[in-house]
From TrEMBL:
InterPro entries linked to this entry: FApF
Organism for this UniProt entry: marine metagenome
Short name of any one Pfam family annotated for the protein: Phenol_MetA_deg
Protein name: Uncharacterized protein
Length: 208
């Protein structure tokens, strides 16, 4: 991750990549931030065939535009796919989006932001929808309502691909082991609104 501040002072670090659940935090004007990483996952069965997917250089560039708004340019990265006995690889699509503060945190309210935008069909044929697909998600964070050692961010929204809509969710829980080390676990998934099969996942790790 790389952060730039036109004023020369480093901002508090808050990242959206590489997890499925975005942070509710918004970069302030004068700040910009690049986040990149990679992730890999396997499915037990995908159309009755086991598969493995890896995404390299999954990157987002965030720019503080207004006090309650940031602009975002994303690249989903290079996709390595193994399905059954077949291998495929190529560049995935990108995205243009914004994140807007809807509700400030208070003693009774969770901090809530809206992330909305559309994909940009920059990927290879095998990994692109060949169209601009809209998406949005609400991101409520209940961290301010929990004990200091526990954090919780959530994401609830809808994505479209090839005119098909999916409800997507994510919930991220963190526990501060010390001042600098946090253990986290994340549940996430996708549920087709019209037709198709559900997809659910879990990941965990440490931040330092």
């Amino acid at each position: 991750m790389w952060t730039y501040n036109a004023l020369g002072e480093p901002p508090p670090i808050s990242t959206d990549r590489i997890l499925q659940t975005n942070s509710p935090d918004i970069l302030q004007p004068g700040y910009s931030q690049i986040e990149t990483g990679f992730y890999s996952y396997e499915t037990d069965k995908e159309n009755n065939v086991k598969s493995k997917h890896s995404f390299l250089n999954n990157t987002i560039y965030r720019i503080g535009f207004r006090e309650k708004m940031e602009l975002r340019v994303g690249l989903y990265g290079y996709n390595l796919e193994h399905v059954g006995s077949e291998d495929n690889s190529g560049v995935s699509d990108g995205e243009l989006s914004t994140k807007i503060l809807l509700l400030k945190e208070s003693e009774s309210n969770p901090k809530t932001t809206l992330n909305a935008g559309f994909t940009v069909p920059t990927g290879n044929d095998a990994f692109s929808s060949d169209r601009a697909d809209p998406f949005f998600s609400f991101i409520p964070s209940f961290t301010n309502l929990l004990p200091d050692s526990i954090s919780n961010d959530n994401s609830l929204g809808i994505t479209w691909s090839d005119a098909k809509a999916d409800f997507k969710y994510g919930t991220l829980w963190g526990y501060g082991i010390s001042k600098s080390v946090t253990f986290y676990g994340e549940f996430f998934g996708s549920i087709p609104i019209d037709s198709g099969s559900n997809s659910h996942g879990f990941d965990w790790g440490f931040t330092w």
